[in-house]
Design a protein that fits this description.
With 135 residues, the chain is α+β, with helices and mostly antiparallel strands. Helices cover 41% and strands 10% of the residues. It binds zinc ion. DNA-binding transcription regulator that regulates endothelial cell proliferation and G1/S cell-cycle progression. Specifically binds the 5'-[AT]NTNN[GT]GGCA[AGT]-3' core DNA sequence and acts by modulating expression of pRB-E2F cell-cycle target genes.
Length: 135
């Protein structure tokens, strides 16, 4: 069996020389293993000693540098799962509302711009008058 990632929607497989590393479920530490499963979000998933997650699901601070190589910390829990990590439509709506509120000052500047154009229209009219007088 080739080593592949147990995360939903993740198609990473172990490739020799690849930057993606694979970590086995900590089945010897049931408490930690259950945290991994919870974070994974796969209902009824029972990790076996061959179940792996790839390094893309761990925050950078889950790793420890040792002699130039990165090791997963013993208590690290994977947290990055794009399939289950949707912010939800409600959050997006709130963002849009915030943006709408910020539009108001722009309208004020538009008003000023139209006032400026009125002034320039007057200037043009004056110039037309001058041109008439000159001719
Ligand atoms: Zn993965």
């Amino acid at each position: 069996m080739p080593v592949s990632c147990a995360a939903v929607g993740c198609t990473n497989r172990f490739i020799k020389g690849s930057e993606i590393r694979f970590y086995r479920f900590p089945v010897s530490k049931p408490q930690l293993a259950s945290q991994w499963v919870q974070s994974l979000g796969r209902k009824g998933f029972i990790p076996t000693p061959n179940s792996c997650l790839c390094s893309e699901h761990f925050e950078q601070d889950c790793f420890r540098d040792y002699n130039g190589r990165q090791f997963l910390r013993e208590d690290a829990v994977p947290t990055i799962f794009t399939a289950s990590q949707s912010p939800g439509p409600d959050t997006l709506k709130i963002e849009l509302r915030k943006n709408r509120g910020a539009v108001a000052p722009k309208d004020a500047s538009k008003v000023q711009a139209s006032q400026l154009s009125t002034v320039s229209e007057k200037e043009k009219a004056k110039e037309r008058e001058r041109a008439k007088l000159g001719s």
